[in-house]
Write a structure and sequence with these properties.
Blueprint (H helix, E strand, L loop, with lengths): L18 E3 L12 H9 L3 E4 L4 H10 L3 E3 L2 H13 L6 E3 L4 E3 L4 E3 L4 H9 L4 H7 L1 H9 L12
Parallel strand pairs: 1-2, 2-3
Antiparallel strand pairs: 4-5, 5-6
Helix pairs in contact: 1-2
Length: 153
């Protein structure tokens, strides 16, 4: 309301965008999973910034949304490039941790654990559990505290 329809998400040229470029400590105070869910529902699939609030980062990772970092200078450069020509196509490559267009190549950072989870698909804990249903049942049946403290050896 305060921006009278001039919020970046309201602008026609940003409709359909799926990369969000932010500054430092993005989403500090957004400890609920609703913040990344709302961004995901709007269409955001990658967030690039200087830094992220830890809980927000974890909630994004749980949804499979990479939150990558770059220096303040690189983020400012990227924001200016996008603003100057919002019709440009940018290509994000998780494997190379980079974002490129026809002229620019910007290297991004992502902590190794998050990278491995996203690259392998192991960020999706629910699917992993469902894929291992038989192993989980076997483990449950062998846990004495879940089996009336009876243990068969």
């Amino acid at each position: 309301k305060e921006l009278n329809g001039n919020h970046p998400f309201d602008l026609d040229h940003n409709k359909g965008a799926n990369i969000l470029i932010v500054n430092d400590n993005f989403c500090c105070g957004s400890s609920r999973e609703h913040a990344p869910q709302a961004l995901m529902r709007w269409g955001i699939r990658v967030i690039i910034g200087e830094s992220f609030a830890e809980i927000f980062f974890g909630n994004c990772l749980a949804l499979g949304i990479p939150c990558l970092t770059a220096s303040k200078e690189e983020i400012t450069k990227l924001q200016n490039l996008v603003e100057e020509n919002y019709k440009q196509i940018w290509d994000f490559k998780l494997k190379e941790l980079s974002i490129t267009n026809q002229k620019e190549h910007i290297k991004l950072n992502l902590e190794k654990g998050a990278y491995n989870m996203l690259y392998s698909g192991k960020w999706d804990a629910t699917s992993q559990l469902l894929d291992e249903e038989e192993k989980i049942k076997k483990t449950v049946n062998n846990l004495p505290y879940l089996n009336n403290f009876k243990l068969e050896i």
